[in-house]
Amino acid sequence: MQFPENNRIPEEVKSIHLIAICGTGMGALAGMLKEAGFEVTGSDHHVYPPMSVFLSQLGIEIFEGFRPENLSHRPDLVVVGNAVSKDNPEVAAMFELAIPYCSLPQALNRFFMTGKGALVVTGTHGKTTTSALLAWVLAIAGLNPGFMVGGILKNFGRNYNVGGGAHFVVEGDEYDTAFFDKGPKFLHYTPSRAILTSIEFDHADIYRDLAHVKNSFSDFIAAMPQEAMLAGYDGDPVVRELLTQAPCWTAFYGLGERSPWRFENMHSDSPWTRFEVTRRGKHFGTFKTHLIGRHNVLNALAAIAVADDLGIPADVISRALETFEGVKRRQEVRGIKNDIIVMDDFAHHPTEVKETVAAVSSFYSDKRIVAVFEPRTNSSRRRVFQDRYTESFDMADLVCIREPPLLDKIPVEERFSSEQLTQDLQGRGKEAHYFADTEAIIDYLVGVAQPEDVILIMSNGGFDNIHENLLERL
After folding, report:
1. 332-473: what fold?
2. What is the chain's mean pLDDT, rounded?
3. pLDDT of amino acid 433
4. CB atoms within 10 A of CB 312
């Protein structure tokens, strides 16, 4: 389908309207635009706290619902959110009024990344933590970076910063850009430095298979400027393959003997994770962080490699890692009640669930790990990962699996079965239970939870506020 050709950003822009403003990324963009001096309005179908409060405190007018009259003030530009379809009534009005429009990454690139060194973190896993770490390292180094990250950085209390420095840190998302641009978001950025953490099949609603995913990352790598730097994880065979195609300087990080950046001697020393880093075979530094698990040490190592390329000294990097408070919803302890720890994590892909469970189990080796999982993403609600999830909970002592929400949106023959997963886990000797809804999980946990338990709750959604409700009842 052909769309009007005014998918462009005018030379002069004063007023900007955002359709679907209350999403995490769109809300952050709205805040940045307001701070940069633009007149900002927005609309969304569900306007509620905390985003509604955050935006109103910034003085941004928000319209409840999508209506043509929301564009009656004729803004200079409309930013269309990723979740917005071509049938949206404001989109129809936008076309009729011939108002220039663009996507979130287009706006981010034009207004906040032009003239700056873009530090782009890509990969199936670890983007949020790695980009947050990198942004904090730059901040501690006094470089005042701009950034947009997919989670709230506790050190900043938000997920964005306009920044006055020479660098901008951004997650390079492989998800499609908008209804009028089905290419991945990261193709809108031109990195001076980039990180590639991993490449696996995900986003089954838009990608056919791993080869389709690889093609998108291959396009990203092919567009890297020759003078840029690309750091890639050596333990991922697809990353290793694609980095051979890079037109720019590349640097592997991980555990490979030939990799210029390696970590070793990782160990837990509560409340710290400690590890040593070598650069081209020579000792670079000894670091400690409150982050948990091997995967987070790899995230830190990637950030260290890029920070070093920016000329940031090892002692400054060390201070940043020590003071990094983490990202909300990434192994975040939501509360402790009766010596029972309730932890929240965003893990949803089978690899992420496995790494998270293993990390928490290793760090809390003297405690019982109760893993609670809600399959909520477009991929996890499909049977594409049905068998792989069976191995994701090996390090848990007790497993609770919820029925996927919104299953009616998935074709019957493609639906994931939580009941089948529960049976398969039981077949592996795991104590596992299936639950039809969140309330049933809470009722069960209140009855079986014991002091010294760690209840690890994993979902990419709100999970019916299970964390607070459980803490109230424990």
Report:
1. Protein-Tyrosine Phosphatase; Chain A (3.90.190)
2. 93
3. 97
4. 20
